[in-house]
Amino acid sequence: MTETQHTWSEAESARYRAAGHWEGVTFGARLRRAAADHGNRVALVDGDRRWTYADLDAEADRVARGLRGLGVGRGDRVVVQLPNRAEFVLVWFGLQRLGAVPVHAMPGHRRREIGHLVRVSGAVACVVPDRHARFDYRELMRAVRAEHEPSRSPRTVVVVGDPGQEYGFVSFEALRAASPSSPGRAAPDAALPTTGADDGGADPGDVALLLLSGGTTGLPKLIPRTHDDYAYNARACAEVCALDDQTVYLAVLPLGFNFAFACPGVLGTLLAGGTLVVAPDPSPQTAFALVEREGVTLTSLTPPLVTHWVDEAASGSWDLGSLAVVQVGGARLPEEQARKLGPALGVTVQQVFGMAEGLINLTRLDDPEDLVCATQGRPVSPDDEIVVVDADGRPVPDGAAGELLTRGPYTLRGYYRAEEHNRTAFTPDGYYRTGDVVRRLPTGHLVVVGRIKDQINRGGEKIAAVEVEEQLLVHPAITAAALVGVLDERRGERTVAFVVCDGEAPGVREVAAHLKERGLAEYKAPDEVVQVSGLPLTAVGKVDKATLARELLRR
């Protein structure tokens, strides 16, 4: 798929523009407008560092000039793999000012995933930290570049922190400080953005960023989001959440996640003129201290964090009076936890069910408690089209379970450079097959029942079973393997690897070390390893994972 294929029809585009969903403004221009409207208001907080909207706008120009000096321009893809720190936002808007395309990578991704993203996106550059969580990203980048031919390897690596002289990488601070005429930084005729440049000539219909799918067939697919559709995603969520210039949003989850970035998250807050506060880690102690200090009004969590936050709040040693709304998404929140969370923190709970591919569902702030605690919300846009179908593709009545199909003004029409997959991921009339099994209530709220995809949702981290299984089979002791997700109160699902072995099965630690050596992210390692004499098969010869899960429950 190219950047221009699989887009909305002319009629749909005209309808979305007429409805005011698509405003025809790039993100580079939006930041310029925000600086004009809210210049001296605080836009971004990271520890002791603060940026006003005017500062953020100027910083985007500065980063854009540095990146242009390294040869990055309109349409170029740049993998951004940064933890929660302000530089993620600075780099993101710097790329938007160039009309370049950030590829959102997760901090937990390793050689296999990052190499895949580089290959598929054709990235010309990567931006990484020096070290984070005791992991050296410079070594990761060296390994990724060594695996690619020079013509297909990212020509530039920018490091936030110490670039290390032995790697030949570029320091982010040096990039910021570089003047347009710095020797060796650019060809003499390179057109450098000036203070008045908004977006490097980008069009609102251009791809503005590439998000990652959960990945059900191994490595993640890339999801193209345009300036028009992604801004509407953030604005529609912000409207449901009643964001304004008094909003203070605490980014607890990784900034690269769609949930934290635009539901409404980072973008929704900044487009409303509010303040974004970056939390370096998701612990309740860190977060509650920031709530007290910055007057945080809104934040977003995944279900595994809820119990820790509730327990810490019970200590009574924190002033959480400013915190008004806590969103929970990324995985289904058990109803019992949903009923505890609001009273424990003194907040309104908002359930979130969505996907990086588009459709976002939120419970409303004035919904009855039963809907808030027992459903996963309803679509944020009046033009979100929803169909729930049975196995034969026929619509089912409200209350019946079926696969969720959707299309609308911010739901993709095709994955990036994945033509074969696109033929089955979408219906002929443009509906996206989500793979989620839901029940729709007469109110329009959705209850998530499960998935038809072979994907495991472990505390919000999406794990493609087939990818882990393929790497398990490389282990010399394992002759057959099946990765199964089973219900878990704390994580939503935990992963169990059923393995057939010659001799004794490797333990959990050995399997984790093996997968790490194979280049997989650490969160993909199974929580449990169970040795079996053979894998049960269905009538059509596929591994019967439902039987494996049932057998595990009987143990």
UniProtKB/TrEMBL annotation:
Bias kind Low complexity: ranges: 180-197
Listed CDD domains: 23DHB-AMP_lg
Domain of life: Bacteria
Domain AMP-dependent synthetase/ligase: 31-416
Domain AMP-binding enzyme C-terminal: 467-542
Pfam families for the chain: AMP-binding, AMP-binding_C
Region (Disordered): 180-199
Classification via PANTHER family: LONG-CHAIN-FATTY-ACID--COA LIGASE, NONRIBOSOMAL PEPTIDE SYNTHASE PES1 (EUROFUNG)-RELATED
The protein's name in its UniProt record: (2,3-dihydroxybenzoyl)adenylate synthase
Protein source organism: Streptomyces endocoffeicus
